[in-house]
Amino acid sequence: EAKRLGLNKVQCFTSNLQTQLEKHLHVEKGLRRALEASQFELLLQPKWSLADCKVIGFEALLRWRSENDGLISPQDFIPVAEKTGLIVPVGEWVLRQTLAYLERWNELGLCQYGIAVNVSPLQLKSGQFVDMLQHLLQEMGIAGEGLEVEITEETLLDGYEEDPRVQRDLSRIRELGVKIAIDDFGTGYSSLRYLRQFPADIVKIDKSFVSADQEDLVEPEICRAVVTMAESLGMEVIAEGIETQQQRQQLMDLGCRVGQGYLVSPPVSFDEATRLLLVPAPDKT
Ligand code: C2E
Ligand code: MG
Ligand code: MG
Ligand code: MG
């Protein structure tokens, strides 16, 4: 009986692997097609001042509109893009699109609004990212100051100490005038002590500390500690995932000044984002 159960387990395990592999291949094929057939869309989510909910900038968030599977979330395809190396062309597409948005805003006189792009660990480790960034800024004639790069805390912890290239890349990014934000701060095994070590301009408090199925902040003490530490290091703080007025108020009381989240806006299309800048939304405070 035990043997039979054991065997079942193995069969279950291998068939699991089989489906995972099939899914992986399916996604990989789809991603290649998506790049050729322009099935990606880059949405923009506003970042806003907590005091008055006025939009001060954006984060670019990628979507894949697949013919067969509908809208696919980055969490479902970025890992495959990383494993297959497709993250490099996908990341280049994201960067080009972001710079095209900034160019359009420059033409409309909206040059004070910046956009943050997410950069995955493997993109950085490919060693080509900073060259590409520098090249594209030059080619499109855009100042680095309009751009931010979001790198997760995990990526930084993972590569920073062992890999001198990561440190060099981060300094080069900043030399281009591009700001660096530490994304999802608090989710890794980091301690606040690490903040001092990273050459970053902005810290983003992960949404798991801000919102869950409750109206109040999930972890007010952690939020307070991050705000205090970042402040003393001269870094800006952005709280992600603000969904309620209570959370907004509590974060303000802790000294946090900038937020992002469904309370003000989900990620929206470029046209919608531009409309938000040209025709400010009704007061939500
Ligand atoms: P992230 O950079 O931490 O982005 C924040 C995520 O929280 C986004 O999910 C956003 O839609 C979601 N969000 C925003 N406001 C709220 C809120 O009030 N409540 C809740 N519950 N969620 C909120 P999304 O767009 O699905 O992206 C997931 C992750 O995928 C991102 O996390 C980022 O790590 C990655 N990603 C997205 N776009 C790109 C990209 O262009 N390149 C790379 N390498 N990664 C990307
Ligand atoms: Mg991000
Ligand atoms: Mg985040
Ligand atoms: Mg995240």
Amino-to-carboxy terminus distance = 65 Å
Please mark out the parts with pLDDT under 50 across 5 or more consecutive residues, or reply none.
none
Main sheet: which strands, in order across? Answer: 1-2-4-5-6-7-8-9
Task: Find the count of extended strands (DSSP E, 2+ residues).
Answer: 9
Number of helices: 11
Helix-strand string: HEEEHHEHHEHHEHEHEHEH
Ligand identities: ligand C2E, magnesium ion
Class derived from helix and strand content = alpha/beta
Q: Assign a percent range to the helix content.
A: 40-55%
Whole-number average pLDDT?
90
Strand content: 15-25%
Principal-axes shape call: globular
- What is the rounded Rg? 20 Å
Largest sheet, in brief, is: 8 strands, mixed, barrel
What does this structure look like?
- The protein is an alpha/beta fold and 285 residues long.
- The protein has helices at residues 2-36, 74-84, 87-107, 121-125, 129-140, 153-159, 164-175, 193-197, 220-232, 245-253, 270-278; strands at residues 40-49, 55-66, 70-72, 114-118, 147-152, 179-185, 202-205, 236-239, 258-259.
- It has eleven helices and nine strands.
- Helix 1 (2-36) crosses helix 2 (74-84) and helix 3 (87-107) packs parallel to helix 5 (129-140).
- The termini are far apart.
- It binds ligand C2E and magnesium ion (MG) (3 copies).
- Ligand C2E binds at residues 45, 61-62, 73-75, 78, 94, 118-120, 150, 183-184, 207, 211, 240-243, 260-262, 267.
- Residues 24-281 form the EAL domain.
- This is Diguanylate cyclase/phosphodiesterase.
